[in-house]
Design goal:
Oligomer: heterodimer
Radius of gyration of chain A: 21 Å
CATH superfamily of chain A: MetI-like
Strand content of chain B: 35-45%
Low-confidence stretches of chain B: none
CATH architecture of chain A: Orthogonal Bundle
InterPro entries (chain B): AAA+_ATPase (IPR003593), ABC_SmlMolc_Importer (IPR050093), ABC_transporter-like_ATP-bd (IPR003439), ABC_transporter-like_CS (IPR017871), Mo/tungstate-bd_C_term_dom (IPR008995), Mop_domain (IPR004606), P-loop_NTPase (IPR027417), Transp-assoc_OB_typ1 (IPR005116)
CATH topology of the largest domain in chain B: Rossmann fold
Organism (chain B): Candidatus Sediminicultor quintus
Pfam families (chain B): ABC_tran (PF00005), TOBE (PF03459)
Strand content of chain A: under 5%
Strand order of the largest sheet of chain B: 6-7-8-3-9-10
GO molecular function (chain B): ATP binding; ATP hydrolysis activity
Mean pLDDT of chain A: 93
Keywords (chain B): ATP-binding, Molybdenum, Nucleotide-binding, Transport
Radius of gyration of chain B: 23 Å
Largest interface: A-B, 17 and 22 residues
Number of domains of chain B: 2
Helix content of chain A: over 70%
């Protein structure tokens, strides 16, 4: 029992003394996950929108596929990206393996089905009259699409927070693609895994508390967006 | 300023609109009347260039529109606007709703502010700019939607059933606004309605649609109600005011009927005849038109009766006179 209490004490010491190593790990985590989320949003929101409003062959299948990919095991993503960017892989020449970029790629792949699937259901939930209203008021096709996205804004922000919650907490892909190199690719989740196995409970618990805190903040945003939806 | 020629539109192989010619002049009010499914809304959507007809031409100021480039169509579409029957407000403030049409036209914010202020005053909602749309009553929402259309300063304003989904008090307000739009802005207004008396009250010209076709003369005494089978086994038409007519009909259920005002016989005493419909009513309005006199008679619902000037004088009818109306079951025309 003692080691747990000591660990918690140590954890608070580390947090309140603004321990350098801890905070560089937290910052890298945020940087990697935020980059992945921004990129997947830029691609996923328009794709989710188009999948919803366009009629095309295989539309149902695409939607089912996206919903299946919501539960993509992170280690499988890690395996896939690893095989692509390892030295022997087709993208090996770029030397991406064990870099933050590799982790961004992994998290991007994890996030994009979430963004697409949830944007799809967000747009689907929007009143069908929005487009016509915009058009009658003189909007172009593009402007009316923007009006639809704007009406769906809270649901889309929910999609983004959901995806962020998933990637910030994932460990499999980050471990395989980043390699958990101290000062370079060590992020919160991989650090917790390592420090715990080393017996450094204080360090692990400190990161765990911060991760929980981030999850709390995400959830507060998430609930705020949810409450604004009508 | 706007006209259509040989217009045809089909949905699922069913012709919903088939109009040879229809023209609208500047700064006039037009009412399009007809029962549900007669093609009123489809016609408005086509005129507003939101839906393409299968066949036919649309002219705006003598320029053919449909075969133009998209940017040209947009330019003309921006000269008009349509207010839907069940209008939608963006989840935001009144201001940003009314501003929408100005924003998509990239007008400066000073112009926007001024026009929005004027438009809200026009519909009797001054100072409503910062209200959230979910705080508005149904009637207020309807007026915000009209302000949102007016702010564009359209040359043609289409209103689809502007008073169908609001209460009596707001109907009067919306009707006043329509009259005011024409008087102060000289905008051409084209609206659809179920309510024939509203059409005549507001419009310079009434266009009547039935099954997608224009009918020459607007039917007076067009009534909405239900055909019911009574206990005696006979079918009767029951109006909204609960007046029942004998009718010749195969079907039962909701329906439109009209009674030709010249098919109704007036008398002071009830008389024996083969006609199955006879009602006692009171004359509430007398309109003299050349050789004919149009009487509005209240029998629980208003009915219009047209008689010659000679019989009007012979019978010595006055406002408030109690008279019997007699007409045959076959004079009740079913649609």
């Amino acid at each position: 029992m003692d080691f747990i209490i000591e660990g918690i004490q140590k954890a608070f010491q580390l947090i309140f003394s603004l321990d350098r190593e801890i905070f560089s790990i937290v910052l890298l985590s945020l940087r990697v996950s935020l980059t992945a989320i921004v990129l997947s949003s830029l691609l996923g929101i328009p794709l989710g929108f188009l999948i919803t409003i366009k009629k095309f062959f295989g539309k149902k299948l695409t939607i089912i596929l996206m919903n299946t990919l919501l539960a993509f095991p992170t280690v499988v993503v890690g395996l896939m990206v690893y095989s692509l960017i390892s030295r022997r892989g087709p993208l090996g020449v770029f030397g991406l393996l064990f870099t933050p970029t590799a982790m961004v790629i992994g998290q991007f792949i994890l996030a994009i089905p979430i963004i697409i699937a949830l944007t799809h259901s967000a747009i689907q939930g929007i009143d069908k009259r929005v487009e016509k209203t915009a058009l009658t008021l003189g909007a172009t096709k593009l402007q009316s699409a923007w009006a639809i996205l704007k009406e769906a804004r809270y649901a889309i922000l929910e999609a983004i927070t959901t995806a962020f919650g998933r990637v910030i907490a994932e460990v499999g892909a980050a471990m395989m693609l980043g390699g958990n190199i101290k000062g370079s690719t060590r992020i919160m989740t991989t650090a917790i895994a390592l420090e715990t196995s080393k017996g450094e409970f204080g360090f692990g618990i400190a990161l765990g508390i911060i991760l929980l805190f981030i999850a709390l903040v995400i959830n507060i945003f998430h609930h705020y967006f949810q409450s604004r939806r009508v | 300023m706007l006209k259509v020629k040989n217009l045809k539109k089909k949905y699922n192989n069913k012709t919903v609109l088939d109009i040879d010619y229809l023209g609208f002049q500047e700064s006039k009010i037009y009412a399009i009347v007809g029962p549900n499914g007669s093609g009123k809304t489809t016609l408005l959507n086509i005129l507003n260039l939101l839906v393409k007809p299968d066949k036919g031409q649309i002219f705006f100021r003598d320029q053919e529109i449909i075969n133009n480039s998209n940017s040209k169509i947009l330019e003309i579409r921006r000269k008009m606007t349509l207010v839907d029957q069940d209008p939608f407000l963006f989840q935001s403030t009144v201001y940003s709703n009314v501003a929408y049409g100005l924003k998509v036209r990239s007008l400066s914010s000073i112009v926007q502010q001024n026009r929005i202020k004027n438009a809200l005053e026009m519909v009797g909602l001054p100072g409503f700019e910062n209200r959230k749309v979910d705080q508005l009553s149904g009637g207020e929402a309807q007026r915000v939607v009209i302000a949102r259309a007016l702010v564009i300063e359209p040359e043609i304003l289409f209103l689809d059933e502007p008073t169908a989904s609001i209460d009596q008090k707001n109907i009067a307000k919306v009707e006043k606004i329509i009259a005011k739009i024409r008087r102060e802005l000289r905008t051409t207004v084209i609206f659809t309605t179920h309510d024939l008396s509203q059409a005549y009250r507001l419009a310079d010209e009434v266009i009547s649609l039935l099954d997608g076709k224009m009918i020459k003369q607007v039917q007076e005494n067009l009534l909405w109600g239900e055909i019911v089978k009574e206990e005696d086994g006979l079918k009767r038409f029951k109006t909204i005011g609960n007046v029942k007519f004998a009718i010749v009909s195969e079907k039962i259920g909701p329906a439109y009927v009209s009674i030709d005002p010249t098919d109704i016989i007036l008398s002071y005493e009830p008389f024996q005849s083969s006609a199955r419909n006879s009602f006692l009513g009171k004359i509430v309005k007398i309109i003299e038109q050349n050789n004919l006199v149009k009487l509005e008679i209240d029998i629980g619902i208003p009915l219009v009766v047209i008689i010659t000037r000679e019989s009007f004088q012979d019978m010595n009818f006055n406002l408030g006179s109690k008279v019997y109306l007699t007409f045959k079951a076959s004079a009740v025309k079913l649609y």
